Amino acid sequence: KKKKKKKPNMRATLFNPIRLAGDFSHFLGIMCLFLAFFYQRSCAGISLKSRLMFLCVFSTRYLDVMETQIPYNFVAKIWIWTSCVIIVIAMLTCLRPTYDRENDTFCAWLAVIGALGIAVFTTWGSGMSLLHVLWEFSYHLESVSLLPQFFMLYRRQDRNCLLLLSTTLIGLYRSLYFFNWIYRAYYDPSYHRSYVVVTCCGIFTLFFLDFLLYVARNISPLYNLARAGIEKIEQKIFIELPDLSGGTSAQQTRRSGYEVLNRTASDWDVKSDSSEEIP
Predict the structure, then answer these.
(1) pTM
(2) Which of 209, 197, 211 is nearest to 140 (CA)?
(3) Per-residue DSSP letters for 34-79?
(4) Quick one: pLDDT band at residue 86, thresholds 50, 70, 90?
């Protein structure tokens, strides 16, 4: 006798209450970002690197959007991707003067390269398509996509209500999806268990719990641990910089690597001699 194929449990997939709560939290978090733009006329405190990473995540994950058969999934994917594009364009154009570049220092390029490397390594030799590799890359990258926003709020000691609410709702969305995968694995016999998804969501949940501790008690063990690591590196690595003040003697100053990386362009301006005039 031929075995009957297991039909997907629609209650455990589309109408899963945990998933719907996560989607609703994501939508509200995006709306709070738009409200912050509208009422404050500023993007101060919002990490552009974090928004670019999210745009990269959803651009690589939703490449199959035209093949989506469920209307709810199609509308949700279009809305999420479109909102990411609008936010990035707004921060790069009309709100660019208010962008706090000095405190947005997270190494986003390192996270992107790392996520891509892990995705290629875990799928190498398995015969998977490029679409599937990009899908895994999106999940690896999303697990750290909110870290630039977390670190920016930690550095600024920002207690802006809209920013904290937006970041909390977007973080809650990803954490709820972690429990959504567990729920589906238990209730839906046809669900294909992906340990990559569960692991990435679990890692992000740990970061999110650290952020909730910051919101409640203004304490971040993760950020303090990162600062302690940087201070240890500073004790061993020093960069010798020439005197740029225009003096006759070339005095050497010792600056820590962390300070140099966070210098602004104005710090490097060379003072011109008052006796010389520029023609």
Answers:
(1) 0.76
(2) 197
(3) HHHHHHHS--TT--HHHHHHHHHHHHHH-TTGGG--SHHHHHHHHH
(4) very high
